[in-house]
Every structure is written in structure tokens, then in C-alpha cells.
């Protein structure tokens, strides 16, 4: 799909694709921003931006090299492989978000992550002159890790149904939003309800993964693309039920231990 | 080598948190694909997608309950 064809979008499909790409990318960029902020604050912005820029260039090269190859893979095989990976990825996010919502595992805290990273960076050696390789490597590594996740999510929600351009636009919008917020507040974005975002993203990615695998296997979904909405609703209901179940199961166990 | 091991672990961690859930989900996917391809009419029936999705939901809820029991 080209940018000029956006007016002809199938919104039953494009809406969830864009929402999934935007929300998932927001979570990843917030996590990357925390570490880049720590590097910039402790070791200097020149090194933080150098590492981040280097990773972004490498990611762009990877996308430019491997992106066109996706068009050569048969669609049903692409849907099966990407759908399976997306399913594993989505279920992992959703399971963790459910366990966090139920209070079984601790919530992710960006402020704590920032303080931990700051402490590590303050305690390590830095170069007296020139480039601080350790600081650059830290910014590079986090940007690469989170960036690869974003690229995977964009490809996974976009490639199977010709929605790469809308999904990419949504991810870019998330990047612009997080960078703008980072520039404004100059602190980790700890007030963003990360677990709620992860809960929503887990539901969307799991529903997409299920849908793609079904498509790749040749299953006939009732209502075609609209069945994606039913899958999202089903995963939401199951996730909410799982939160209640987990709380109920954990409470008696905690009471017995006490 | 350390960097490679760390990257491989990071990549594995992207997809797998509960190993049993990952194995069972992939097993369910494989079974669904095999049945859809081998059994005539199975993929075309309107309930195939629903059964496939229901299986995944059961696996997810079971994994959560198992984790809640362990803690």
C-alpha cells in the first residue's frame, strides 16, 4: 500500500493495526527513553545521542535491506510464521500484564529503572577525553533492543494484511510523541500507565496473531476482517477473568503462608 | 561471545516468558494448521476459528492460574 492509497483503507483492519502499532511502540519508546535519559544525565548528551542515532541508522538499514524481501514470501506462509511469533509475543505481554494487574508480580517502575541505570552509569569508568564508549554502547543497546521490538511489531501487525504503511505511521507518531514528552518533562515518563498499555497491547497482538495464523492455515473467519473485533473482545474478557482468577487463587495461598 | 549470548537471550525473552505456555501454544497452532490442511472441510467450517481461538484462551488462563498458584 502506498501513502496515496490511505483514503482507501479498510478501517476494520487498519484501525486495530494502527492502534496496536502505536500503543506497543509507545511502551517500547518509553522504556528506551528512560535509559537514554539516564545516559544523557550522567555521562552527557553527546554520547547518549550518538549511541541512539547509531542504533536508529542501523535499524533503518536493516529495515531497508530485509523489508523488500518480505514481499517475496508467499502470503499464507508469511501469515503463519509472523502470526505464530506475534501470538507468542502477545501472549507473553498479556500474561505479564494480567499477573501485574492481579498483584502477583510487581509493576514496572520507570523512575526506579532510571535510578538503577543512573547508579550503574555513575559507578562505571568513563573516558577522560573523546568519546565515552560505555555510554554510547548503553544508549545504542537499549535503542537497538526496543527498536527491534518496534520493527517486529510493525511488520507483524502490518505485513500480513498489507497494512505496513499505516502501522509504520502509527509507530512514527508514537516516537514523535515520546520524544516530545521526553524533551518537555526531561524525566522518565513514569506517569504513563504502562501496565494498562501493556494489557491493551497484549490483547491486540494476541488477537492479531490468532487471526493471522487462522488466515495462514486457510480457516474461514466468520465476518472476515470483522472477526478481529470479536477476537479482541474474547481476549479482553478472558484477560479480565484471568485477573480475577489469579487474585482468587493467590489470596488463599498467601493466607496459608501467613 | 558474551554480547552474542546476551542478544540471543534477549531475543528468546521477547517471545517466551512461560516456556510451557509457549510450547503448548505452538503445539496448538501446529495441530490447527495440520487439521485445517489435512481434514477436508475443516478449515472452511465456521466454527474452526472459534475453536482455535478458544484453545488459546484456555492456555493463557491456565498459565496465569499456574503462575498465581506458584507465588
- The dominant shape of chain B is flat
Radius of gyration of chain B using CA atoms only? 16 Å
Shape of chain A: globular
**Amount of helix of chain A:** over 70%
Give the integer mean of the pLDDT values of chain B.
87
Name the helix and strand elements of chain B from N-terminus to C-terminus, one letter apiece.
Answer: HHH
Number of helices of chain A: 8
User: Helix share of residues of chain B?
Assistant: over 70%
Radius of gyration of chain A: 20 Å
Low-confidence stretches of chain B: none
Oligomer: heterodimer
Task: Profile the largest sheet of chain B.
Answer: none
Walkthrough of the structure:
- The complex is a heterodimer of chains A (258) and B (71).
- Chain A is an all-alpha fold.
- In chain A, 79% of the residues lie in helices and 0% in strands.
- Chain A has helices at 11-43, 45-70, 75-101, 110-123, 133-158, 164-185, 194-217, 227-257.
- The termini of chain A are far apart.
- The model of chain A has no long low-confidence stretch (mean pLDDT 84).
- Chain B has 71 residues and is mostly helical.
- Chain B is flat, with a radius of gyration of 16 Å.
Brief synopsis:
Chain A has 258 residues and is an all-alpha fold.
Features:
heterodimer; A: 258 residues; mainly alpha; 8 helices; 79% helix; B: 71 residues; 3 helices; flat
List the helices and strands and how they pair.
The complex is a heterodimer of chains A (258) and B (71).
Chain A: H1 11-43, H2 45-70, H3 75-101, H4 110-123, H5 133-158, H6 164-185, H7 194-217, H8 227-257
Helix pairs in contact in A: 1-2, 1-4, 1-5, 1-6, 1-7, 2-5, 3-5, 3-7, 3-8, 5-6, 7-8
Chain B: H1 2-15, H2 19-38, H3 48-70
Helix pairs in contact in B: 2-3
Amino acid at each position: 500500500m502506498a501513502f496515496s492509497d490511505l483514503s482507501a483503507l479498510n478501517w476494520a483492519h487498519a484501525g486495530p493495526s494502527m492502534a496496536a502499532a502505536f500503543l506497543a511502540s509507545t511502551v517500547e519508546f518509553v522504556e528506551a527513553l528512560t535509559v537514554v535519559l539516564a545516559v544523557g544525565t550522567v555521562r552527557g548528551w553527546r554520547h547518549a545521542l550518538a549511541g541512539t542515532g547509531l542504533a536508529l541508522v542501523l535499524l533503518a538499514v536493516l529495515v531497508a535491506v530485509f523489508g523488500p524481501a518480505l514481499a517475496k514470501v508467499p502470503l499464507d506462509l508469511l501469515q503463519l510464521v509472523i502470526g505464530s511469533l506475534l501470538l507468542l509475543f502477545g501472549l507473553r505481554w498479556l500474561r505479564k500484564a494480567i499477573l501485574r494487574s492481579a498483584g502477583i508480580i510487581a509493576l514496572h517502575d520507570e523512575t526506579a529503572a532510571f535510578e538503577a541505570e543512573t547508579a550503574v552509569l555513575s559507578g562505571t569508568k568513563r573516558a577522560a577525553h573523546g568519546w565515552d564508549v560505555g555510554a554510547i554502547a548503553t544508549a545504542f543497546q537499549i535503542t537497538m533492543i526496543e527498536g527491534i521490538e518496534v520493527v517486529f511489531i510493525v511488520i507483524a501487525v502490518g505485513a500480513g494484511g498489507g497494512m505496513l504503511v499505516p502501522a509504520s505511521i502509527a509507530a512514527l507518531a508514537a516516537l514523535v510523541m515520546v520524544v516530545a514528552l521526553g524533551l518537555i518533562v526531561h524525566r522518565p515518563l513514569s506517569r504513563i500507565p504502562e501496565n494498562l498499555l501493556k494489557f491493551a497491547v497484549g490483547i491486540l497482538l494476541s488477537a492479531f496473531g490468532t487471526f493471522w495464523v487462522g488466515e495462514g492455515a486457510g480457516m474461514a473467519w466468520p465476518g472476515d476482517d470483522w472477526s478481529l473485533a470479536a477476537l479482541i473482545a474474547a481476549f479482553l474478557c478472558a484477560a479480565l477473568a484471568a485477573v480475577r482468577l489469579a487474585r482468587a487463587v493467590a489470596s488463599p495461598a498467601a493466607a496459608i503462608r501467613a | 561471545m558474551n554480547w552474542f549470548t546476551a542478544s540471543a537471550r534477549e531475543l528468546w525473552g521477547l517471545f517466551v516468558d512461560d516456556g510451557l505456555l509457549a510450547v503448548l501454544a505452538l503445539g496448538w497452532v501446529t495441530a490447527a494448521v495440520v487439521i485445517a490442511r489435512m481434514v477436508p472441510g475443516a478449515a472452511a467450517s465456521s466454527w474452526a476459528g472459534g475453536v482455535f481461538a478458544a484453545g488459546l484462551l484456555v492456555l493463557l488462563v491456565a498459565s496465569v492460574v499456574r503462575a498465581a498458584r506458584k507465588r
